[in-house]
Specification:
The complex is a heterodimer of chains A (about 1100) and B (about 600).
Chain A (H helix, E strand, L loop, with lengths): L1 H23 L5 H22 L7 E9 L3 E2 L4 E4 L5 E3 L5 E6 L5 E5 L6 E4 L8 E3 L3 H4 L2 E4 L2 E4 L7 E5 H5 L17 E4 L9 E4 L11 E4 L2 E3 L10 E7 L2 H4 L10 E6 L6 E16 L8 H14 L21 E3 L23 E2 L7 H5 L3 E13 L3 E13 L6 E16 L2 E15 L10 H7 L27 H7 L4 E18 L2 E20 L13 E24 L3 E24 L16 E25 L3 E12 L8 E12 L13 E15 L10 E4 L5 E2 L9 E2 L1 E5 L8 E14 L4 E18 L13 E22 L4 E18 L7 E6 L2 E7 L6 E4 L2 E4 L3 H6 L2 E2 L10 E3 L7 E2 L5 E4 L5 E11 L2 E11 L2 E4 H6 L10 H5 L28 E3 L2 E12 L2 H7 L3 E15 L17 E2 L6 E11 L1
Parallel strand pairs in A: 1-8, 14-17, 45-47, 51-55
Antiparallel strand pairs in A: 1-2, 1-5, 3-4, 3-6, 6-7, 9-10, 11-16, 12-13, 14-15, 16-17, 18-21, 18-56, 19-20, 21-22, 22-23, 23-24, 24-25, 25-26, 26-27, 27-28, 28-29, 29-30, 30-31, 31-32, 32-37, 33-36, 34-35, 37-38, 38-39, 39-40, 40-49, 41-42, 42-43, 43-48, 44-46, 49-50, 50-53, 51-52, 53-54, 54-56
Chain B lengths: L1 H17 L21 H12 L19 H6 L4 E4 L6 H7 L8 H26 L5 H26 L25 H16 L12 H14 L3 H14 L22 E5 L32 E4 L1 H6 L41 H4 L22 H4 L33 E5 H15 L2 H15 L5 E4 L17 E6 L14 H15 L6 H11 L3 H13 L23 H6 L11
Antiparallel strand pairs in B: 1-3, 2-4, 5-6
The chains are: A mainly beta (about 1100), B mainly alpha (about 600).
């Protein structure tokens, strides 16, 4: 190995040298070139070393820096080249500094202007007119291990800068990309501090399709760690020609986050920002009140043919009667059982009936206060720049007793040690402290218990303890207010240190080597309390506490050589080559005990628990070693070519397939630069065509796929051989089956793109059309159970295909003599996903079910996943119609008021074989529209986001429309369900039929929506006023999110977070809150 | 220049360190490879891992559908019990109850997964490990015998549920198991089971220090049970005789001793499934497959109100003046119940003469429910219109006094307890032997064994006559002094013994009735009806259809239109497995 790599680096050098050779058109041996390089370097060193000695003939130079059409330029840097001597121009643009002698070269620089160098000679006054630098105003885009000017890009890369990230307020920086970058789909869970789900260009794999995140060169998890204010820019690498440099981890796209750094020769800049606001839930289900619920109970009885409809709460009379009490069941005032003196918690409790009906959503919702403070300090001296920031973010959830606090610290510094050596570091420390029950999108969470509770149940009993489903006929829901209250001390604490140190040496002009060591260390600690739920019909009567901790230690070491050279002003060559090694190790342990004498969190520590002493622990690690290189050639700014290769060796793969190579190439042609396009330059500023093809991989299959293992297990491997009734003998069972012949899955992307700008750069248009094929997709092959249940290895067997386009259009201009600025930016994305192979069995199908009903499936020829179930052709209206239809499931289901299911396979019977694909959760189009207006210090941003063509399964409907369990019911269950007199109803007869609840088209709803996600109105205090109070800038703003939604979806929120095989199944999610806040940003 | 050399050196060092081969070798943490098991401790560990599948649940890999109690296939599918709970809870059981199981129903799939996927596979892995390990001959034989007993048990359980269409995989075919057809020759499955049990019988000791392990007699009893499934009386008879002749087993003094935690592993037990609670969270070592079968509601408040005794079963306990069953008329009129009657209204339990086992089996309103208090009827039932008037079966439930020791305290299935499942008890042996005697016209033997059972049934009855008809809410659990008279039986109990039988049919009918009452709700009723149908074709359908038709009196919409068909005698082979072994596995006929 050593030999190989030695050769490899030698090869890289040869590559560089060969290129040099060709460019210089010299036919010298590589050895000679190397010698020459060394001489040049030596010479440069000597220069550096001697510069301090040459101090003779010192004198003072004064002058003024102006810009064409702008007048004096304050704050411009004037430095003596090769020294630390420098000055800054004042407000009138003048400067004064001492220079060593006539050979000194003064360098004038200012951000946004072309740097000028002037030899002093005999002059004592040097006035300079500097010109604005169009190139400098161009965005610099971070690509893997390097940067590019935006116009030089050949691949599909989107870039978002600080400015774009500022206009919305999501706590996660990555969430703020929503609608701003084409080709990226983002959904958020709406829990406090919640992590978004991000998909770049659809779903490239049935395995973990998350993109790779890299912060300042260190691969990390999603962006929740970061304070969004710390971010300079985010690059999204979308096609394989861009992501191939990340090899076996790049297939699902790469998100590169760059944090802010100070600038040299810059006075300290201090920015303080503060924002505070409230979050509210905007939606709730329309549920029956107590009286209506009684009617529904009677309707049910009539529908099933009960001799005495009703129940013990609402009675069995002619009509429902709302009782005064539900515990004792159906009791009236004066009933001896309701005598408060009998009350003896928890054995004898008394629940009053909630007569108007408890609105459980009102009970669990709160106005969550959001506070966000951030302080940033940056600046730099001649040799060192720094950027420091600290922030505090506190978000109360829209559900009671939930809270998320995040504290961030960041320090980025960089020093030029000598003119050839630069060292720097980044350090970020994050502390997260969350409290409460964040359960989401599941039937057991508080947000779902709110629809599962009947309205007649009060929140509290007569003595102020919680009431619940313990009363008769109240189903089995848990009081969500009690859930939230009892979870109020459940906490999660997360400490993370993340950063890097690096050194970069410039060997000769344009050639630099860089070594970066990155680290990301996280510690997680959580405590969960179990408090008895005596008020429930399925109570937990014993208290308990469980604690878990884990750590994750990651490091990577990247060594790169960068070479950039321009030859004869037309050949620009940029080369990067390097190696990267990383290791990630993880350990966790947890413990729990039951029976605590006291339920105070001050008391409930593991040692105080008396029973059920349980614990667990585990660990894992993986490592990778890689080599990579990339060459980018730019001829006259017209013809751009880029080629990339990466070779990865991963511990995750079998020893037979440990190494893999990922090549990619792309080209671009800037047509607008061609002579024959000169005539169009008046209206078309840029037209660039791009094409790229490349491969990238995905290695996320767990760490030990190659191993067959056995394990012990307290439950599934143990048995009470001794018959002691509490205690088992431990055994061993087969745990995993390994395979050594498994490598990464490979994704090949073909990408065509157009970038263009028109009308004096006011209108821009960019389009990428792509196709992405995943081959050797890792799939945990379903193994017949007769072979045992040890989990089978992932094997490279599946194929998947995605096609789509990403589009962005922008227009920005000014009006009213520049007083009004306006910009409109539209992004749009479309993808189509298709599984082209799962296994060698063409009929292989993966199902996802909940409550014993299959909801989604994935198989060849369909997207991953699609909804799977029966097709409803209507509701039977007459007995004759029902009798004529194919018998459903061998039962007497077919009757008036029940669904008529389609006989898909025409066998004259409805069976499970009649299920088919009934809709797709994948949107046909998602898009964002940003509108910015600026006038007289005011700026207004409107951000719309929409999704079109995606379907959702409203699983909550199974509960509230069809009566899964005896819980809360929708208004439709009563008023819009079939009866002999309401034959046009949306729902079938309300009889809780399990068959009506089988997944069918009746549950598939249109999930399209258009939402005004964000509105921000800011005001910049004018400069005249600022000068008086000696401030640089003050911005005050008002911000509101989720003000308006247009959708046909009946659930709480069409925009919700789900992914994987259960994508699109709305099981009751935290709805997108409406947030209204005010903020101020002070620049000092 | 020096610095440059340092940098270059650094770079080279990086490459060197990074690419040392071991850097990419990461081995699994916290688990082991198979080569550590080839010693006595190792094979015992694998054997224990095989035992772990005996109870039938391996939460959360497979769960309720895999329970060894067969409460779904053996009880809910029969005339003994209802699904209970609510209409829409665990909807796969609705299909089982209504005899219309889909091939995609996940309950039988769980039974398949557990018995064949996990049980048989683990047994075979253990056998292979034993064969690779050098141990004293006697030790090896004992280990093999235990393992083969377990494999026989897993196959027997699969055979009960799926019939003959199960692939027969021995330890030599472990890697090719997916190529083994399930289209067996008639009798092949039974022969396979008997081969395992015969080896076990020949090599297991007569008693075990650890009660969880099978004895020679357990192997014989299980073999007899297997023969009884096909009414192979010839082969069953000597096994049963040997067990009886051994003198090692006897009926416990009281019927209810078979359902008490403090009487686990008693003199009547031939093979018990051990249950352990509170060893870890959620008590998943306590056969959580019946974790849903505890009463839900009121102050009992466990989980989840499934597996409620049927009205038909309650009716079956009615006796005539001689204390003998009402064979022909028992279901004409329902024993008085409180269906649809709120708990706070007047109610007096039936005064009919009843077999005393009724109140050890069925939770009836107005009768003391173990030590939990007077059964309050509807208040203790999750959803009476759907689940019927009776509380989930008392046999599996625990005493209130044991609630923090013998029952689980964590998780949500808080009805799980440490009451062992008496998989085969001496009463089974006696009644099977009586059945053989009846077929031979050997009435004295029938009378001897059946009457032993009936006499024992009268030894201990549920005590506590409830004197109040309206239960004030304050009387938790027993009300005011005098409200319950604990010196009096809770109901009008009467049980008599048989004096003679006029015919084989009469004797057989008495035994079958005795089987039903003695083992009611223990998961064997459906399979018993099926095996008796061999001798009297059509009897199973007649019994079940009559049950369904009459049941509409209690639950108007559950069994409406339900007809028992021949295919419903066996559960379908899981479709998912047929899909994975398309040319290997065949579906049961009718599906």
């Amino acid at each position: 190995m050593l030999i190989f790599d030695f050769y490899w680096i030698k090869f890289s050098l040869i590559l560089i040298e060969t290129n040099l050779t060709n460019l210089f058109n010299q036919k010298k041996s590589t050895m000679q070139i190397t010698t020459k390089l060394r001489r040049i370097t030596l010479f440069l060193f000597s220069m550096v070393l001697s510069s301090g000695i040459l101090l003779a003939q010192e004198r003072t130079i004064t002058g003024k820096v102006t810009a064409e059409g702008e007048g004096a330029i304050p704050g411009a840097n004037v430095t003596v080249q090769g020294t630390t001597i420098g000055a800054m121009t004042g407000v009138d643009g003048t400067y004064s500094l001492k220079v060593p002698g006539p050979t000194s070269i003064l360098v004038f620089s200012s951000v946004g202007y072309v740097t000028q160098a002037i030899t002093v000679g005999s002059q004592t006054t040097i006035n300079v007119v500097i010109v604005s630098d169009v190139k400098a105003l161009q965005e610099v885009v971070v690509v893997g291990y390097s940067t590019r000017l935006k116009d030089q890009l050949t691949g599909a890369v989107s870039n978002v800068t600080e400015k774009d990230l500022k206009v919305t307020s999501a706590p996660s920086a990555v969430t703020r990309l929503q609608g701003k970058v084409s080709g990226v789909t983002i959904t958020t869970p709406n829990t406090p501090g919640g992590e978004p789900t991000i998909r770049i260009r659809g779903i490239g794999t049935i395995n973990d399709p998350n993109p790779l995140y890299v912060i300042d060169g260190v691969p990390v998890g999603p962006g929740n760690n970061l304070n969004p204010d710390d971010i300079e820019s985010i690059s999204v690498l979308k096609d394989a020609s861009s992501t191939a440099i990340y090899g076996s981890r790049g297939a699902n796209g790469v998100i590169l986050i760059t944090t802010k750094r100070g600038l040299k020769n810059q006075k300290a800049n201090v920015t303080f920002s503060a924002r505070a606001g409230i979050k509210q839930a905007a939606n709730q289900y329309s549920l029956l009140n107590t009286e209506e619920y009684g009617q529904a109970v009677f309707l049910y009885g009539k529908n099933i043919g009960s001799a005495s409809p009703g129940n013990d709460q609402y009675g069995h009379g002619a009509t429902p009667v709302v009782p005064d009490y539900i515990l004792p069941a159906g009791a009236k005032e004066g009933d001896p059982g309701t005598d408060p003196s009998l009350y003896n918690y928890p054995d004898y409790v008394i629940f009053k009936a909630s007569k108007p009906g408890t609105n459980w959503y009102n009970e669990i919702y709160q106005n969550g206060v959001v506070q966000d403070y951030s302080l940033q300090l940056s600046g730099g001296g001649t040799n060192t720049s720094y950027s420091f920031s600290t922030s505090y973010y506190d978000e109360q959830g829209i559900l009671k007793y939930t809270d998320f606090k995040r504290y961030n610290f960041r320090l980025n510094t960089e020093s030029t040690v000598t003119d050839w050596l630069r060292v720097g570091q980044s350090l970020q420390a994050v502390f997260i402290d969350q409290k409460g029950d964040f359960g989401n999108n599941g039937e057991g969470t508080p947000i779902s218990q709110a629809y599962r509770m009947q309205p007649i149940i009060p929140v509290y009993d007569i003595e102020g303890n919680f009431a619940g489903s313990r009363a008769k006929n109240m189903g089995n829901a848990a009081n969500p207010v009690a859930d939230l209250y009892r979870s109020r001390n459940n906490d999660g604490k997360w400490i993370r240190g993340l950063g890097n140190i690096f050194a970069e040496a410039t060997i000769i002009k344009g050639l630099s080597v860089k070594s970066l060591f990155g680290y990301n260390i996280g510690l997680w600690n959580s405590k969960n309390y179990t408090i008895p739920t005596y008020e429930s019909s399925e109570p937990n009567k014993i208290n308990g506490m469980a604690q878990s901790m884990n750590y994750d230690i990651f490091w990577n070491w990247v060594n790169t050589v960068n070479y950039n050279v321009t030859i004869a002003a037309v050949h620009k060559l940029s080369i990067v080559a390097g190696t990267e090694a990383y290791k990630d190790s993880y350990q966790e342990f947890g413990a729990s005990r039951s029976v605590y004498f006291n339920e105070s969190p001050d008391y409930m520590y593991l040692s105080s628990g008396e029973s059920n002493k349980d614990n667990y622990g585990s660990g894992s690690a993986n490592s990778m070693f890689s080599q990579f290189g990339r060459v980018n050639y730019d001829l006259m700014g017209k013809y751009l070519i880029e080629a990339t290769i990466r070779r990865d060796g991963s511990s995750r793969f079998g020893s037979n397939k440990r190494y893999g190579i990922f090549p990619a190439a792309s080209v671009a042609w800037v047509i607008s630069q061609e002579d024959f396009m000169k005539s169009t330059l008046s209206w078309m500023n840029q037209l660039k065509l791009r094409a790229g093809y490349g491969t990238a991989g995905n290695d996320r299959i767990g760490n030990y796929n190659g191993f067959s293992t056995y394990a012990t297990n307290g439950y599934t491997a143990s048995y009470d051989l001794n018959g002691v009734t509490s205690g088992v003998v431990s055994g061993f069972i087969p745990n995993t089956r390994g395979s050594n012949d498994v490598g990464w899955e490979t994704t090949k992307t073909l990408n065509f793109g157009v970038d263009s700008r028109f009308l004096n750069n006011t209108l821009s248009f960019s389009l990428d059309i792509w196709t992405r094929k995943t081959t050797d997709m890792l799939y945990q092959l379903s193994v017949p159970q007769v072979l045992g249940l040890a989990s089978p290895p992932f094997v490279n067997i599946g194929d998947m295909k995605n096609t789509g386009y990403d589009l962005s259009i922008g227009y920005n201009n000014t009006a009213l003599n520049g007083k009004l600025t306006y910009a409109v930016n539209l992004t749009g994305s479309h993808y189509k996903n298709e599984v082209t192979k799962l296994s060698n069995n063409p009929n292989e199908i993966i199902y996802w079910n909940t409550r014993q009903v299959d909801y989604t499936a994935a198989t060849v020829g369909h997207a991953f996943p699609e909804f799977y179930g029966y097709k409803v052709e209507g509701i039977f209206q007459t007995a004759e119609e029902a009798a004529a239809a194919p018998v459903a499931f061998g039962t007497t289901y077919n009757q008036p008021g029940h669904f008529k299911f389609a006989d898909i396979n025409n066998d004259n019977a409805i069976t499970t074989a009649d299920r088919t694909f009934i809709g797709s959760p994948h949107p046909k189009f998602t898009g964002g529209l940003n509108i910015d207006l600026g006038y007289a210090g005011f700026d207004l941003n409107l951000f719309f986001y929409g999704s079109y063509g995606n379907k959702l399964i409203n699983y909550v409907s199974r509960w509230i429309d069809y009566g899964q369990f005896d819980g809360g019911l929708s208004k439709d269950a009563l008023y819009n369900s079939w009866t002999s007199t309401n034959t046009g109803a949306r729902l079938p007869m309300y009889d809780q039929s399990a068959i009506s609840q089988y997944n069918s088209t009746a549950f598939v709803e249109d999930g399209s929506f258009l939402r005004l996600k964000n509105l921000r109105l800011g005001y910049n205090i004018p400069g005249t006023l600022l000068n008086k109070i000696n401030m640089k800038s003050i911005v005050v703003y008002f911000q509101a999110s989720n003000l308006l939604t247009m959708t046909k979806y009946r659930g709480l929120d069409p925009e919700y977070n789900s992914s994987g095989i259960s994508m699109g199944i709305d099981q009751g999610s935290w709805p997108t809150p409406r947030e209204i806040s005010f903020g101020i940003i002070l620049g000092i | 220049m020096k610095k440059l050399s340092i940098i270059s050196g650094m770079l080279l060092m990086t490459l060197f360190i990074s690419c040392s081969k071991s850097f990419l070798d990461q081995v699994p943490q916290g688990s082991t490879a198979d080569n550590v098991f080839y010693n006595e401790k190792g094979v015992n560990s694998l054997l224990t891992g095989t035992y772990a599948m005996v109870p039938g649940s391996a939460l959360w890999t497979v769960s309720w559908g895999a329970s060894i109690t067969n409460w779904t296939y053996g009880s809910v599918a029969s005339d003994d019990a209802y699904k209970g709970s609510e209409k829409t809870d665990q909807i796969p059981i609705n299909e089982i109850e209504q005899w219309q199981v889909s091939t995609t129903n996940n309950y039988p799939a769980e039974k398949w997964c557990l018995c064949i996927g996990m049980g048989v596979n683990r047994a075979n892995i253990t056998l292979n490990a034993i064969s690779k390990t050098t141990l004293p001959d006697a030790t090896t034989k004992e280990l093999v015998a235990e393992t083969r007993f377990l494999r026989g048990l897993f196959y027997f359980e699969s055979w009960l549920v799926f019939g003959d269409k199960i692939p027969l995989i021995d330890e030599t075919k472990i890697d090719a198991a997916n190529t083994i057809s399930n289209d067996n020759a008639p009798g092949a499955v039974l022969a396979f089971i008997i081969a395992d049990l015969t080896y076990a019988k020949d090599n297991l000791p007569e008693s075990q220090a650890q009660p969880g392990r099978p004895t020679k007699y357990a192997a014989m009893a299980l073999a007899a049970k297997a023969y009884m499934q096909v009414l192979d009386y010839t082969n069953a008879k000597p096994l049963l005789n040997a067990i009886i002749a051994s003198g090692k087993y006897s009926l416990m003094p009281n019927f209810h001793d078979n359902f008490r935690v403090d009487k686990n592993n008693n003199a009547e037990s031939i093979f018990e499934v051990q249950r352990s609670v509170n060893d870890y969270n959620e008590s998943l070592n306590a056969e959580a497959g019946i974790g849903l079968n505890a009463p839900q509601g009121g102050d009992i408040g466990t989980c989840c109100g499934f597996h409620c005794p049927s009205q038909n079963l309650a009716n079956a306990f009615k006796v005539d003046a001689n204390g003998l069953p009402l064979f022909d008329t028992f279901n004409n009129v329902d024993l008085k119940n409180d269906q649809g009657k709120p708990s706070n209204e007047d109610f007096t339990p039936a005064t009919d003469a009843l077999d005393p086992r009724i109140d050890w089996t069925i939770g009836r309103r107005g009768i003391p429910y173990l030590d939990w208090g007077i059964n309050r009827g509807g208040d203790w039932i999750r959803n009476q219109p759907w689940g019927g008037p009776y509380i989930p079966v008392e046999k599996t439930f625990f005493n209130k006094a044991d609630r923090n020791t013998a029952s689980t305290t964590t998780g949500w299935q808080t009805g799980i307890d440490a009451n062992n499942i008496r998989y085969i008890r001496y009463a089974h042996i006696l009644l099977w032997r009586a059945e053989i005697a009846a077929s031979e016209g050997d009435y004295p033997t029938v009378l001897n064994y059946v009457n032993q059972i009936r006499t024992r049934a009268g030894h201990e009855v549920v005590m506590g006559k409830v004197n109040i008809t309206k239960l004030p809410p304050s009387v938790y659990p027993w009300g005011n002094p005098g409200d319950v008279d604990f010196t009096q039986p809770a109901a009008n109990y009467h049980i008599g013994t048989y004096t003679s039988f006029a015919s084989k049919e009469e004797a057989m009918r008495a035994i079958q009735w005795e089987d039903r009452l003695e083992f009611a709700t223990e998961g064997s009723r459906f399979f018993d009806l099926r095996r008796w149908d061999i001798a009297k074709p059509g009897s199973m359908k007649a019994t079940l259809d009559a049950f369904a038709a009459a049941d509409i009196r209690i639950r108007p919409d559950v069994m409406k239109g339900a007809i028992f068909t021949e295919k419903a005698k066996y559960q379908p082979i899981p479709q998912t497995q047929i899909d994975l072994q398309p040319d290997v596995l065949k579906q049961n006929s009718g599906y």
